Amino acid sequence: MLLPRPDALSLLKTHIKNDRMLAHSLASEAVMRALALHLGQDIEKWGIAGLLHDIDVEITNADPYTHAVVGAKMLEEMGLDADIVDAIRMHNEVATGQERTTLFQHALAAGETITGLITATSLVYPDKKVASVKAKSVTKRMKEKAFAASVNRENILECELIGVSLDEFAALSIAAMVTIADEIGL
Question: How many beta carbons lie within 10 A of that of residue 164, not counting itself?
Answer without folding.
Answer: 21
